[in-house]
Amino acid sequence: MRAVPKTAVLFLFLVVLAFVFVDRSVGGNKPPETETIAQWHIKWDTATNGEKMNVLEAMGLQVQESVDPPPDGKTGELVPLGNDSTKSGGKAARGKSAGTDDTDDGWTFVDGAQSVPSKPDGVRAAWIKFELPELGWTRAGLMIDKLYSQNYAVVLDGKVIQESRRSYLYEVNKVLLPLTPEDSFKSLYIRIETSGEKLGIESAIRVGDHHELLKQFMKQDLIDVVLGSAFIFFALMMLICSFFLKNTHFTNWLSLSLVILALGLMVITYSPFLYTFFGQWGDRLFLLFDISLLVFLPALTYFFETVFGSGKFSMIRLFRIFQISYSFLCILLTAINEFTAYQYEAAHYFITVLLLGVTMIIQFVLLVGYTIVFTWRGNKDAIIFTSGFAIFAAAAVTDLVLYYSHSQNYDLVLWKFGVVGFVVGLIAILGRSFARDRDKLISYSSELELYNNRLQRSEKMQIISELAASVAHEVRNPLQVTRGFLQLLGEKSDDKEKAYMKLALEELDRAANIITDFLTFAKPELEHVTVLQLCDELKHIEGILVPLANLQGGEIELEIPSNLYIRGNSAKLKQALINIVKNSIEALEEKGTIRIWAYEEFGEAIIHIKDNGIGMGPEELAKLGEPYYSNKTKGTGLGLMVTFRIIEVMQGKLQFRSEKGMGTEAIIRFPSVLEAKPELL
């Protein structure tokens, strides 16, 4: 989570804001103090405006040219709207049964609780009429939540009081009309026209206080704007940040930001909110929705590719290249179709609608198929992607089930919340990618620090080796000469002088041993490298050191399998391991134990030497193996330094673990050999 950008928090905050502060009563629940008109009549009209305009002009009706006057309820002919019998109170209309179909004059009864009536073939227009109830509000209003019509005009008292015309095919309208108490019991006519499939009013008509209805009208579908704006804002922040990223993160960051940006634009341009308040830009909103979809599809494939790879035979990469080319083709055809006044609409529809649907099906099958494969392999990113896509798919399928179960009288709303779940899943995948890279960076930094320490130690050891070889060579010969003369003098000395001579010889021997350690450290070449059986070598070391351990009040426990073999020099190996075991013996307190065990793991023979002695702190542990460092009174620090050097030459590794008061554990690793071979290597 630490790798997820801070803007993600703001994005989630805006999404929550959409659910919390947008009035959830909008879109179906009747607000207080309103009256519902649940029944009306509809009359299909096959005539065009041009056939009736001259009649309207001759009658001198106060209507705009684009609107036909409603036909008379009895004869079906055009009549002046000002002479409507309902103007005087509409008693005749009010006494009429609401469940009657006036098939003799063409008017059909409609129950608002039912679905929108099916439009007859060849019909592009219709009239809707209903009687207004008593308007007891000072500033009354009428609100229609959903009117399916490309163009509509509302006629009251022979005058058009509201009109909307669209040059693009978008059929969802929300209507809010201001009324007065004088309009009570009057008949209201709505002329509707469309080039699409649906024509009519869905759900009931509400009448109430204009101010209250206006608030509901403004809040309807506002959640789409808030949700889409949150997507867009978050995507823009990601796009800005992407320019500061390196190439390793730029591609998946950019592709995800394009996915979120396209989804945000699709949510907003799909909502009726913008078409209601910014209808003059409706054709551009339509175009923006199409472009957003054409950007979303290849961007999603590209993001999938950056996370999971190109797939077998590079299928994902090849399909992504096809999608980008196809999207550019669709945008080009749309531009050509716009500039040529839709002369190539048939080809445009086939390529950008029908073929697009097939492409989307192939894409989702491909991505879901690969996701299932990666999920089966235990890929956590694939599991997250599958979960997010499952949320989106479940929401979309639920929407479709409700849509068709309600005879297509249902708003598709759940898919938007499914998009939120899907986007959150994509963001989580990107966050995991950043977290992995951060962990790699930390790991690489640790390894770099380790290699740097090793390099410094190696350089230091190289300098000391050269110095040790020079000093040991120059000092060893004079020491041997001095020892020889002391031995000669000791033969001619009395007992008291012999005691002094013995002490001098012992100190010379100690100096010689130190020089030998220097030479071993300086030139640790291994002679006679053979395959060694660890069990035999460690048993030999145990035999040498058990008396020393007993003197310290300790014991040695050995547990070595007989099938462990390594390459090396027996004498050098014994020297190194004896140094380690001797240090453990010297660190023991009363009745201490030194446990030695070994095993094979991942092609390595691993030896553990563990004691329960006084232990060491972190500072002491860090200095082990450094020249001249020793925590013993008479120690020189050369023994452990030589041990490190021998193990290093034998391609091994030595590691110490220790805790003050708990003891120390040495772990030695050598490349293992499958079986012993008698010949020299």
UniProtKB/TrEMBL annotation:
<dbReference type="InterPro" id="IPR005467">
    <property type="entry name" value="His_kinase_dom"/>
</dbReference>
<keyword id="KW-0418">Kinase</keyword>
<feature type="transmembrane region" description="Helical">
    <location>
        <begin position="412"/>
        <end position="431"/>
    </location>
</feature>
<dbReference type="InterPro" id="IPR003661">
    <property type="entry name" value="HisK_dim/P_dom"/>
</dbReference>
<dbReference type="InterPro" id="IPR003594">
    <property type="entry name" value="HATPase_dom"/>
</dbReference>
<dbReference type="InterPro" id="IPR036890">
    <property type="entry name" value="HATPase_C_sf"/>
</dbReference>
<keyword id="KW-0902">Two-component regulatory system</keyword>
<keyword id="KW-0812">Transmembrane</keyword>
<keyword id="KW-1133">Transmembrane helix</keyword>
<feature type="transmembrane region" description="Helical">
    <location>
        <begin position="316"/>
        <end position="336"/>
    </location>
</feature>
<feature type="transmembrane region" description="Helical">
    <location>
        <begin position="348"/>
        <end position="370"/>
    </location>
</feature>
<feature type="region of interest" description="Disordered">
    <location>
        <begin position="65"/>
        <end position="106"/>
    </location>
</feature>
<dbReference type="InterPro" id="IPR036097">
    <property type="entry name" value="HisK_dim/P_sf"/>
</dbReference>
<keyword id="KW-0808">Transferase</keyword>
<dbReference type="GO" id="GO:0005524">
    <property type="term" value="F:ATP binding"/>
</dbReference>
<dbReference type="Pfam" id="PF02518">
    <property type="entry name" value="HATPase_c"/>
</dbReference>
<feature type="transmembrane region" description="Helical">
    <location>
        <begin position="225"/>
        <end position="245"/>
    </location>
</feature>
<keyword id="KW-0547">Nucleotide-binding</keyword>
<keyword id="KW-0472">Membrane</keyword>
<dbReference type="InterPro" id="IPR004358">
    <property type="entry name" value="Sig_transdc_His_kin-like_C"/>
</dbReference>
<feature type="transmembrane region" description="Helical">
    <location>
        <begin position="382"/>
        <end position="406"/>
    </location>
</feature>
<feature type="domain" description="Histidine kinase">
    <location>
        <begin position="470"/>
        <end position="674"/>
    </location>
</feature>
<keyword id="KW-0597">Phosphoprotein</keyword>
<feature type="transmembrane region" description="Helical">
    <location>
        <begin position="285"/>
        <end position="304"/>
    </location>
</feature>
<feature type="transmembrane region" description="Helical">
    <location>
        <begin position="252"/>
        <end position="273"/>
    </location>
</feature>
<protein>
    <recommendedName>
        <fullName>histidine kinase</fullName>
        <ecNumber>2.7.13.3</ecNumber>
    </recommendedName>
</protein>
<dbReference type="GO" id="GO:0000155">
    <property type="term" value="F:phosphorelay sensor kinase activity"/>
</dbReference>
<keyword id="KW-0067">ATP-binding</keyword>
<dbReference type="Pfam" id="PF00512">
    <property type="entry name" value="HisKA"/>
</dbReference>
<feature type="compositionally biased region" description="Low complexity">
    <location>
        <begin position="85"/>
        <end position="100"/>
    </location>
</feature>
